[in-house]
Write a structure and sequence with these properties.
POFUT1, alpha/beta, endoplasmic reticulum, transmembrane, single chain, EC 2.4.1.221, 539 residues, transferase, 3 domains
Length: 539
């Protein structure tokens, strides 16, 4: 058992207890102070965030206002461009590609909107501010877009103004070259060109119409002749360009009036598109006529003495386009218009092919050029005339021209006989020269001129074997033709010959004679006393 005396009581010291409490209180005060500081920082951050939110809200509101202003400006620009588009539509049929380009230009408003949206995102990502670099990039891109739109709009206005200036206030003359083949079409072109100049209208150049066994072909005027030399004489425009650029402005579909001399036997109007090649010609350009003008009822013809009356009766203000069913030029062409041949200059393509043939196939030497008008269509044409001439005799033979009248011109016969038959009369040899007379005349011409090269052009029979047989084989003669015989290239070759012999009645070779007359080169005719004619001319 333990004694109570073994327990000792120790008095607690009050100082250590007081020190612990004091330290605890100090620590709590430090914690509270730290918390207060943190709360103050949090409050400051909250105030910063509140200010940032207000600033961002202000920026967004400002950007929205800018976007609204931009949309308003672009709406105005779009309206202006729509107006330009309408004007352009009237001036020309713009292609789908151009329309899409304009639509893409107008859609740049969406691109500009994206720039502003990107700027707003940059505001958020950069804590309410925009880096100066990004700011410059956005402004430069936006400025570029506006400048591009402005340039496009300005260019369109210039383009519209330019096309408006190209419209001839004096009016236009358009026609279908629907009578005969190339030679006939050129004959009437000369008179039509003269007529257009006199009434001061721009001449619309139609394509040449060519015929083969299967189809009718339309060949652009400028595929054969140069435009620039023609413009030295008078204003002219190709048909395709006229339909594309001019017709929509001054000749809309509801104002297309057809002009003809007399009423058609098939209807009460002109029947501008009845038959071939009329239908094919106008359909090529999608032209239909809403009314007709039979000008003979107004006492008018397209003969030279009445040209001034056209200015009075059909002023350009009321009739901006005179569209003729056929060529208003005379057939055959009048002697007064023959000098206009100098404005019909072959294209480099035609001329180069002619020169190449002369160099390679005609040895580059002077040559005799002949044209044989012996195709079946020549016989068919003359069958018609023979039918008219044979009526008094009560019978008709379809394959020959046996009933020609001595003093009745056919086609271009005046080029050798003279307008009033002062150089001779119509004979069978002029109409259809025999093979014997052709060979005899060629042999005589070669002996007289000393030429060693013969070039033959024809639509049917070139008689190459016959010509070769009549020329001495040991003296180095050359007889040549083109394969195939391209009409226009052959004409260009014939125009360069030292001597040319051709059919007096043919409009095809009348063109060559006019070209040669301008250059002072001689032309002779089958079955005609050419020596007597020369003596008569000299007297």
């Amino acid at each position: 058992m333990t004694s109570s005396k073994s327990y000792k009581y120790v008095k607690l010291d009050s100082e250590p207890s007081t020190s612990f409490a004091s330290r605890t209180i100090e620590q709590q005060e430090l914690i509270i102070k730290s918390q207060d500081e943190n709360l103050e920082k949090i409050g400051a951050n909250v105030r910063v965030l509140r200010d940032m939110s207000a600033k961002i809200g202000f920026e967004i509101e400002e950007q929205s206002i800018m976007l609204d202003d931009l949309n308003a400006d672009l709406d105005s620009t779009q309206a202006k461009m729509a107006t330009v588009m309408n004007k352009m539509g009237k001036v020309m049929h713009m292609s789908a590609d151009i329309n899409r380009s304009i639509e893409r230009t107008i859609s740049c408003r969406n691109l500009a909107s994206l720039f502003l949206i990107a700027r707003q995102w940059l505001l958020l990502l950069n804590g309410g501010g925009v880096d100066e670099y990004f700011e410059r990039q956005i402004r430069m891109a936006f400025t570029f877009v506006l400048m591009w739109i402005g340039i496009v709009v300005f260019s369109l206005f210039i383009l519209v103004a330019g096309h408006q200036k190209e419209i001839d206030g004096n009016g236009y003359l358009v026609y279908c070259p629907c009578m005969g083949r190339f030679g006939n079409q050129v004959e009437q072109f000369l008179g039509t060109l003269s007529f257009a100049k006199h009434i001061n209208r721009t001449l619309v150049l139609p394509p040449f119409i060519e015929y083969d066994s299967t189809q009718t072909k339309m060949i652009r005027f400028t595929d054969y002749f140069q435009l620039k030399p023609l413009l030295k004489y008078h204003r002219a425009i190709e048909m395709s360009k006229f339909i594309r650029d001019v017709a929509p402005v001054i000749w809309p579909m509801n104002r297309r009036i057809g002009f003809c001399y007399y009423e058609s036997s098939h209807s009460n109007g002109c029947d501008m598109k009845y038959g071939n090649p009329f239908q094919a010609f106008w359909d090529l350009y999608n032209v239909d006529f809403v009314s007709y003008e039979i000008y003979s009822k107004n006492g008018l013809t397209t003969d030279r003495p009445q040209w001034d009356l056209w200015l009075e009766r059909y002023p350009a203000k009321n009739y901006p386009v005179l569209a003729f069913k056929g060529a208003p030029g005379a057939f055959p062409s009048n002697p007064e218009d023959h000098a206009l041949q100098k404005y019909l200059v072959w294209t480099p393509n035609v001329q180069n092919k002619a020169d190449t043939f002369i160099s390679e196939n005609l040895r580059g030497q002077p040559f005799l050029g002949v044209h044989l008008r012996n195709n079946r269509d020549w016989v068919n044409h003359f069958s018609f005339f023979c039918l008219l001439l044979s009526k008094p005799f009560g019978h008709f033979q379809p394959n020959v021209c046996q009933y020609i009248k001595p003093k009745w011109h056919l086609f271009c016969s005046s080029q050798c006989l003279g307008k009033n038959f002062e150089h001779g009369i119509m004979t069978m040899e002029l109409c259809l020269p025999s093979e014997e007379s052709i060979l005899s005349q060629v042999k005589e011409a070669i002996a007289r001129t000393g030429l060693k090269v013969l070039f033959v052009a024809s639509e049917y029979n070139h008689m190459i074997n016959q010509f070769t047989q009549i020329l001495p084989k040991k003296e180095g003669y050359t007889v040549a033709r083109r394969y195939p015989d391209h009409a226009q290239i052959s004409l260009a070759i014939l125009a360069k010959s030292k001597l040319f012999i051709c059919n007096c009645l043919s409009s095809f070779t009348a063109m060559v004679k006019r070209q040669r007359d301008l250059q002072g080169l001689p032309t002779e005719f089958w079955g005609f006393n050419n020596t007597q004619t020369k003596q008569h001319d000299e007297l």
